[in-house]
Amino acid sequence: MKDQELFSGCACCPINRRNFLAASGAAAASALGYFTTPGWLGAAEPTGKTRIRIVYSLHGEKQTGPDWPNKGFDFGPVMERINTTLAQRCQGFEFIPTLAAGEAQAKKILDDDKAAGGMDGYLVYQMNCWNQVVQTLAKSGKPVLYADFQFGGSGGFLVYTAGFIRNKASNIGFVASSDIKDLVEAVKCFQVVKKGGSPADFVAATAQVRLKATPKAGNLACKPDDLKCLSAEECLRRFKESKILAVRGEESGPAGDIMGIQVVNVPFAEINDAWKVADKDESRAVADRWEKTASKVIGVSRETLENSAAMYLGMKVVMKKHGANGITVNCLGGFYGGHIHAYPCLGFHELNNEALVGGCECDVRSASTMVAGMILTQGRPGYISDPVIDTSKRQIIYAHCVAANRAFGPQGQANPFQILTHSEDRQGASVRSVLPVGYMTTTLEFEQSRKEILFHRGKAVDNDPDDRACRTKLCAEPVGDLEKLFTQWDRWGWHRVTFYGDLKEPIQALADALGWRVVEEA
């Protein structure tokens, strides 16, 4: 079995479940000889095992509700393989695995450990996105290694890690890798403290291990791209002619503007009513076209396709009524609350192919970023995503259940796409777009309150087919410092919007015209 497969979530490997509570074992940290901190370098090997509490931060061993990785996901085999691998490869360690869903359970773990004589350190594994466990364990003062179960806990991991970095937490090391070897080497860094080093020495050791294992920058030369951008002045003029509909509740009416782009609240009932009365023949024709052009339709019924087509047509009617060129819908809240009866994912896909904007989760900032970038690039769609960083591949993976398949605009070449269920709950219909590789991309967020544009570039290198988390997963090698890419998530949140094309100079010109600042996150 390849090391990367240990994180795949596959349940086929025969591991004794008793290992989950009795993991212990293998190779100490001889590779840390390059540190020169007085007081522990060259010290004798510690006596007694290094006791590490592994705390899995998650809702439960088997996921019962919609969230990353997906409803029904069984974390048990994944945790068993992590425990067993650490036991086999980290000699001189004793691992005590525990599950925690939130702050109260994390506090009890600390209290119980203190009463029992304490731990040498904690490995906190973020398995679901937003469970707040690591924050409590960080307050212990003990060395803490924070790890991302990628396509499971990545949102919280990125946001919480950035907060630790910003606040200069001196006892939190981190690992963000799909290769189990990187986790093993980071865990061995706990021996630094066992040999007399400080928690800060442990953090420095984990950073050195991470940097050493991260591949050097690859060939960032890209395929030619005949991108022609509008001038900043023309963009600002067109922003004032644009309008985004924000569908998130019962509110209606003007909701301000972003860079001159009007935002108008529209109630769920308005798009749901438009969905109800959408022309049945036209809905069937749209569904026919999707079936014909998709490379695969997996797990999605014909009825669901027609429902999704009716939602697309209904959204277009509402957009036309309001004179809008963009719409963003609180899709999960609307669907789970019974306010809408079809996911808008395929409708967003279609709108974005048409040089209109369909934005997820009623994220108005990202939707305005999509409008701004679409205008700047003369029709190229923005791809809103929940990114994941994998240091073992030197990649950022942009993941979401919606993406256009005309990355270069309505007249550009189409790429293959598949129609599958929405990943988190295995319901409805969404899109896996197999996006073009070899091209430079630019990833953005516009934040009006701070007058800032967040910016990084990356060469598109792959599409990840992993079944966990969202369906479309565009992989890019960032241009610049991968380590720096961990630092902004607490200020900006998880979403990013990616466009095909090198927009470094046009974005700087647009920022100058707005009087804003560009924040280069890589």
Largest sheet: 6 strands, mixed
Number of strands: 21
SSE class? alpha/beta
Give the mean pLDDT.
92
- Uncertain runs: 8-45
**CATH fold assignment of the largest domain:** L-fucose Isomerase, Chain A, domain 3
Helix share, percent: 25-40%
Q: How many separate helices?
A: 17
Shape: globular
Q: What separation lies between the terminal Cα atoms?
A: 34 Å
User: What is the name of the CATH class of the largest domain?
Assistant: Alpha Beta
Q: Which helices and strands, and how do they pair?
A:
Elements: H1 19-22, E1 24-25, E2 50-57, H2 76-89, E3 93-100, H3 103-115, E4 121-126, H4 134-138, E5 144-148, H5 154-166, E6 172-175, H6 180-188, H7 190-194, H8 199-213, H9 232-239, E7 243-247, E8 253-258, E9 261-266, H10 268-276, H11 280-293, E10 296-297, H12 302-322, E11 326-329, H13 331-336, H14 345-353, E12 357-360, H15 364-376, E13 383-390, E14 395-400, E15 417-422, E16 427-433, E17 440-447, E18 452-463, E19 472-478, H16 489-492, E20 496-500, H17 504-514, E21 517-520
Parallel strand pairs: 2-3, 2-4, 4-5, 5-6, 7-9, 7-11, 10-15, 11-12, 18-21
Antiparallel strand pairs: 1-3, 8-9, 13-14, 13-20, 14-19, 15-16, 17-18, 17-20, 18-19
Helix pairs in contact: 6-8, 9-15, 9-17, 10-12, 11-12, 12-14
